[in-house]
Amino acid sequence: MNPDWPLAKKSMNFRVGAALAAIADYRGQGRSYNLGLPLLPLLLASLAGNAAAVEFNQVQTDKSTLSFGYKQMGVPSDGKFRQFAAAIAFDPAKPAAATTQLEIDLASIDTGSKEGNDEVAGKQWFNVKSFPTAKFVSSSVKPLGGNRYEVAGKLTLKGKTQAVSAPFTVKQEGAVAVFDGGFTLKRLDYAIGEGPWADVGTVANEVQITFHVVAGAAPAKK
To answer: What DSSP line would sit under 78-93, residue for residue?
Structure first.
């Protein structure tokens, strides 16, 4: 059950009660009223509006993931970031007004081995001592049809800021919404992998970033 249903139900009961009281008063004056005229559609629209007035903005980080994939010497590899903070405001009725912000703890990278984690935390890669976090801030969300959207914004990584965009889907599962998407990042645009690691024959320039974010709902802002 939608956690906001009790509140919406109270609001709907109030509106229905007020409308019925108005009808009783109207009839008390010796006049008749046909409920099938303008009132019924108005009530139905009111009920639908209350049921949909929610915004998904409670990110459940324990159920969300941020991962990446790349090729090293032509061999596919992958990893993930264990710690990140995400802020989302997504109203299904107003998707173009959605906003999102993501901050990643780069030292939380998991490449599958301690040696790999220590290497990418170093100066030639993320240089986490000088640049401990990466940050994405959205500037727009564009509906693409159905449950598909595209978010655009700026990604700041290792002191460099670039415009990026990522297609994603939204699927409502009970009281939560699941956001799945990704984009291709070119690591050399951010000086990720300097010196001998700048050779894209060793480590590919393209890195596939994939996100899976689960968010609960709260009453939509007016």
So the answer is: EEEES-EEEEEEB-TT
**The pLDDT of residue 178 is above 80:** yes
As a whole-number percent, the residues of the chain with pLDDT over 70 amount to 75
Query: Residue type at 179?
Result: F
Are 104 and 126 in contact by the 8 Å Cβ rule? The answer is no
Average pLDDT over the chain, rounded to an integer: 84
- All residues at 6 or more sequence positions from 184 whose CB lies less than 8 Å from its CB, including other chains: 206, 207, 208, 209
Provide CB contacts within 8 A for 73, sequence distance 6+.
Answer: 202
8 Å CB contact between 72 and 202: yes
Q: What is the helix (H) or strand (E) element at residue 6, kind and residue range?
A: helix 5-28
CA distance 54 to 217: 6
Q: What burial letters (b/e) apply to 106-133, b meaning 16+ CB within 10 Å? A: bbebebeeeeeeeebbeeebbbbeeeeb
What whole-number distance in Å separates Cα of residue 64 and Cα of residue 14? 38
Q: Cα–chain-centroid distance for residue 180?
A: 8
Paired strand residues for 141 = 151
What CATH number matches the domain at 54-219, 2.30.42.10, 3.20.20.510, 2.40.10.10, 2.40.128.110?
2.40.128.110
